[in-house]
Amino acid sequence: MKTSNIVIIGGGFSGLLIAYLLQKEGLRPQIIEARNRLGGRIYTLRSDDEPPIEMGATWLGKKHRHLLDLLDDLGIDIYQQYMGDKGYYEPMSVSPPQLVDLPPNEEPSYRIAGGTDNVIQTLEEGLDQRQIHIDQAVQTIRQTDTKLVIETENDLFKADVAISTLPPKLLVDNVDFSPSLPEELTHIASQTHTWMAESIKVALTFDEPFWRNTDSSGTIFSNVGPVSEMYDHSTDNQYALKGFMNNDYQAVSREERKQLVIEQLRRFYGGKVDSYQSYRELVWQKEPFSYSNYEQPIVPHQHNGHAIFQKAFLDKRLLIAGSETATEFPGYMDGVVESAHRAVRQLKQSLSSL
Description:
The chain has helices spanning 13-24, 65-74, 117-125, 168-174, 183-190, 254-269, 333-353; strands at residues 2-9, 30-32, 44-47, 50-54, 59-60, 78-80, 86-90, 98-101, 110-112, 132-133, 138-143, 148-152, 156-164, 176-178, 200-206, 220-222, 227-232, 239-245, 278-283, 312-313, 318-320. By secondary structure, it is α/β, with parallel strands linked by helices. Belongs to the flavin monoamine oxidase family.
């Protein structure tokens, strides 16, 4: 059994950032992570001869001031997403793809230099590894007179205050509470959209960016599918195309998805696509610590930033953080940073009142 004043549930961007901020305040939280890796929905695939492939969070904008300030604090650079002047648009299956001008006034998107997980690695490096416990899915949280007892399959943790950074729906679906959480919270959380949960991200890597030599840019928008959007995902000297596949295809095999992606790209670039080096994908709906089935249809960002997530529960011993709880840019990396700072402020108030 491990005892700590503060336990953070979830070792993704939110959990690591909260730990980083608390450590700057002289506090030493423990982090419990269900997966065998840190980062959560930030997941960068790496290979020496390929560019970093982002299977999770990828882009940010100049409006994301919380995130930009953090990156500046960590000494991490950003660079502008390559879009080009033209892209392909595929309106319907009976019509060939059209090469169209991209809007010149479109707000630029940016990416994190070195890969999005550069943020995760930098935050982790600032923490004592003894604070981090992976392969520890939280099963129950029980309140006693003076503590929260947090039980995983393998261990017990005691805390004065716990901060959950799990997506709200995953928190109420996967963790048993004693006493029960308020009905209003469980109702709202169970209908809160989890960012990334239904996404299928696919990528093909190449030894040259041939799409930049066809008066195009690697930017694709398709109403036909199976890939609905695709973008240039290259670095200076390593090349890839990455996009989003329609969620309907989560039911078919990986090999079928790969062949469907290749067939679709042939419609735009012909046989050059066959020279791909590797195919990468991640079906987020098959990630049990990111997805929980909805009982009824919900819309993207539903209940994200809801006021109930700003409250403390179990006599101020349980706080809820994470991108879905942010009041600014919920569902984005910027929302992670905003919610982390809010959670730290709440934590100080909770500790002072206990």
